[in-house]
Amino acid sequence: MGAVRVLQRLFPEPGRLQFIYADLGDAKAVNKIFSENAFDAVMHFAAVAYVGESTMEPLRYYHNITSNTLTVLEAMAAHNVNTLIYSSTCATYGEPETMPIVETTPQNPINPYGKAKKMAEDIILDFSKSKGTNMAVMILRYFNVIGSDPEGRLGEAPRPELREHGRISGACFDAALGTIPGLKVRGTDYPTTDGTCIRDYIDVTDLVDAHVKALDKAQTGKVGIYNVGTGRGRSVKEFVEACKEATGASIKVEYLPRRPGDYAEVYSDPSKILNELNWTARYTDLRESLSMAWKWQKAHPRGYGSA
After folding, report:
1. Where do the NAD-dependent epimerase/dehydratase domain residues begin and end (predicted)?
2. Active-site residue, selected from the candidate residues 62, 113, 142, 263
3. pLDDT by residue (tens digit) across 75-127?
4. Average pLDDT over residues 250-267
5. Using 50, 70 and 90 to split pLDDT, how confident is the model at 166?
6. What average pLDDT does this structure show over 140-167?
7. What domains are there in the chain, each with its CATH number?
8. How far apart are CA 175 and CA 160, in angstroms?
9. pLDDT tens column, 34-84
10. Inter-CA distances, 192 with 76, 199, 230, Å
11. pTM, to two decimals
């Protein structure tokens, strides 16, 4: 809600920004929202999105991601809304045999989060091909999202109980703030250059730009599937060093066994989104992205409630 209040202050004009609190699992509520509004398009971001948590609560993930996407599609069909931008993930690929990952790389997810997202993708694709539909669909497969609003208005504030499952940037910042005694790095025996996982870190500001371009280029009767990443893999150890530089803090690092459902190396080939949507990542300096996010975290040590 904190982020919503910030946006409401930024766009106070009547009718410019409407916030409706509802459960996508409640088909009646979703249909009521569609009935009372005239939507041109849907950008579907709503999901739970933690790999570790998904292995502990798989049913919650299948319900929240897969089942709720079905509810959204049914409402779109009932109310003749034909443009969908879907928030997906590189977790649908699992652990491919070759790098970098292209959009045609086989999808073999290895955790419930990735499986739930792939199922949602499959439902969307099947629906878009069905008789009588004329959908414009864009599926964006995010890689590892970091950063915050460069102007310091919005930042990442996960629920406290999810910190253990959360993103490494959040854990780094918690350690730098002294909220936790140190940083726990899970897995040092992966077949990578330094033994830690390699990921493709995409700045959230670039991700926003990708959605704007996807909406602009969405075409009736066509489906576009795109990787949204930098095309460069960075190890967890590299990331931690960049975080130390960004925060200026001495972060104690504890190395632990692997986390269930994780994979060694994942990074994208973003050529397709460059060629077709004219999108490329601009914020590719890890330390710079983390510095912007750190500025927000320092100003909001307890999330939006401490603004």
Report:
1. 14-229
2. 113
3. 999 999 999 999 999 999 998 989 999 999 999 999 999 999 999 999 999 99
4. 85
5. low
6. 82
7. 20-301 (3.40.50.720)
8. 14
9. 999 999 999 999 999 888 889 999 999 999 999 999 999 999 999 999 999
10. 44, 11, 19
11. 0.93
Q: Which residue has the tokens 């330094």?
A: 194
Instruction: Name the amino acid, one letter, at 169.
Output: S
pLDDT, tens digit, 9 for 90 and up, residues 206-252? 999 999 999 999 999 999 999 999 999 999 999 999 999 999 998 99
* Number of alpha carbons in the 13 Å side-chain half-sphere of residue 283: 25
Q: CA 24 to CA 273: how far, in whole Å?
A: 29
Active site residue 93: no
Nearest alpha carbon to residue 71 among 43, 31, 42, 131: 31
263: its two tokens: 């994979």
What is the SS3 assignment for 108?
A: strand
How far is Cα of residue 13 from the mean position of the Cα atoms in its chain? 29
The Cα 38–Cα 214 span in angstroms is 20
Q: What is the CA radius of gyration of the chain?
A: 19
The answer to whether 297 touches 173, Cβ cutoff 8 Å, is yes
User: How many whole angstroms separate alpha carbon 262 and alpha carbon 196?
Assistant: 11
DSSP code of residue 164:
G
275, burial (CB in 10 Å: exposed 0-12, middle 13-18, buried 19+): exposed
Phi-psi map region of 147: left, alpha, beta (phi>0 left; psi -120 to 50 alpha): left
